[in-house]
Amino acid sequence: MTEAVFSFLHVQSWTEFWWVIIGLVGQLLFTGRFLVQWLASEKARKSVVPVAFWWFSIGGGLILLAYALYRKDPVFILGQSMGLFIYVRNLWLIRAERRAA
Question: Which of 19, 48, 72, 89 would disulfide-bridge 40, Cβ 3.0–4.6 Å?
Answer without folding.
Answer: 48
